[in-house]
Amino acid sequence: MQQPRIAIIGAGLGGAAAAALLQRAGFSVEVFEQAPAFSRLGAGIHMGPNVLKIFRRLGIEDAVSAISSHPDHWMSRDGETGDYLSRIPLGDFALKEYGAAYVTIHRGDLHELQIGALEPGTIRFGKQLADVRDDGAGVDLFFADGTRSRADIVVGADGINSRIREVLLGPEKPNDSGWVAHRALIRAGDLARTGLEFEPCVKWWSEDRHMMVYYTTARRDEYYFVTGVPHPEWTHEAGSVPSSREEMREAFAGYHPIVQALIDSAGDISKWPLLNRNPLPLWSRGRMVLLGDACHPMKPHMAQGAAMAIEDGAMLARCLAETGLSDHESAFRLYEANRRDRASRVQAVSNANTWLRTQEDPAWVFGYDVFGHPLREGVAA
Ligand SMILES: Cc1cc2nc3c(=O)[nH]c(=O)nc-3n(C[C@H](O)[C@H](O)[C@H](O)COP(=O)(O)OP(=O)(O)OC[C@H]3O[C@@H](n4cnc5c(N)ncnc54)[C@H](O)[C@@H]3O)c2cc1C
After folding, report:
1. What is the pLDDT of residue 377?
2. Any idea where the FAD-binding domain is (predicted)?
3. At what angle do helices 91-98 and 49-58 cross, to 10 degrees?
4. Phi, psi (degrees; rounded to nearest 5) at 264
């Protein structure tokens, strides 16, 4: 008899984590990714101790740690005066209190390490899922290139415009939050010329906008900013468009000289719409289940969106290992029961953009261990 197979749609940070953890739990997994290949796009990402503990299971914690910046603190500062609003201890404190490091890293470098944790040949690139059909005994997958496949269960890790979400819940565009993010990488050499001092991880705030800034490498030779700025409705077809120093100077007029120096030193600046969705009425049906942005997309202001996708993948693997693939419906209920409250809480805080603006205790996020946490019973069907 053929081994039961799990198909994951999307090899983003969530799908890649789910695949690697399911393989380690002994399942046969195939990942279908629409992109023909992955490249190192210009963006950084925070990874908290809650995720580093999952990377420990995957055997990539040390590799991630070795190429990341390890900030001692998350600083929050007033955008205009530069006054400190909070100093959240990370560094050794995070290691001791939360059980793993807090790092900032280039997103492409992180993704590469996650992909490297998969069994060779796991990802099928250039496979855009067009349709799925669950006939009760299995799921048929139909791809845009005319090919098809069949799996026992399907995990929708296909991001905010998830095709699996659409099949489960019908077509619905995500909400435009009315905000955009500007992103740019900056060479540290260009910063040195300004004579100013740049902190490893700092968020500059004012009433309705902010700029988050941090290093993306262990050598601290690459710095990165990502903003949150109110913006008229997003009318572009593209997922991002080029921005400019002029646009940013206008958006951050009156901000501190350090912020002005960052704008002046930035390389290519891009602009991204911040989209989200209201909590979904269901996370799974039959043989299909959702995770990450396909399930609970959020504004990125807490730097935990990918973390929630990776935690989802880890919890799904844990639940399937607990029940076995033949009882996937119990696994999916257990998974949702153990993820919905946490993901929804993070989604709400992230959308409100209040995280670490003042001196608060982040232990509920960073101290969490997806494999150590006692499992809550799944809700009856
Ligand atoms: C500006 C910004 C900054 C952020 N900063 C952080 C941060 O610091 N920390 C953090 O934790 N999170 C951050 N996030 C959030 C994070 O990027 C997302 O939450 C995360 O990428 C979600 O991962 P995912 O795997 O669920 O989806 P995605 O990363 O969107 O991956 C989905 C994958 O599915 C593929 N796909 C889509 N449709 C199909 C299809 N039909 N067939 C086949 N493949 C398909 C896509 O090509 C993609 O590879 C940020 C987000 C933004 C916008």
Report:
1. 81
2. 6-346
3. 70
4. -65, -30
Supply the pLDDT for residue 297.
96
Q: Please report the atom of ligand 1 found closest to the CA of residue 312.
A: 26
Mean pLDDT over each residue of the chain, to the nearest integer:
95
Q: Ligand 1 pocket, 313 CB below 6 A?
A: no
CB atoms within 10 A of CB 317: 29
Question: Which protein residue's CA is at the shortest distance from atom 29 of ligand 1?
Answer: 12
Q: Is residue 233 packed enough to be buried (19+ CB in 10 Å), middle (13-18) or exposed (0-12)?
A: exposed
Question: Concatenated DSSP letters for 4-60?
Answer: PEEEEE--SHHHHHHHHHHHHTT-EEEEE-SSSS----S-EEEE-HHHHHHHHHHT-
Who contacts 219 (Cβ-Cβ below 8 Å, separation ≥6)? none
Whether pLDDT at 333 is above 50: yes
End-to-end CA distance of the chain: 30
Q: Spot the catalytic one: 98, 102, 214, 224.
A: 214
Catalytic, 214? Answer: yes
Question: Is 73 part of the annotated catalytic residue set?
Answer: no
Nearest-CA neighbor of 212 among 40, 44, 13? 44
Which uninterrupted H or E stretch holds 156?
strand 153-156
Question: Is the beta carbon of 215 within 6 A of some atom in ligand 1?
Answer: no
pLDDT band at residue 3 under the 50/70/90 scheme: low
Whole-number percent of the chain with pLDDT over 90: 93
pLDDT at position 1 is 40
Q: Of the candidates 14, 56, 58, 61, which has an alpha carbon nearest to the alpha carbon of residue 33?
A: 14
Are 328 and 288 within 8 A, CB to CB? no
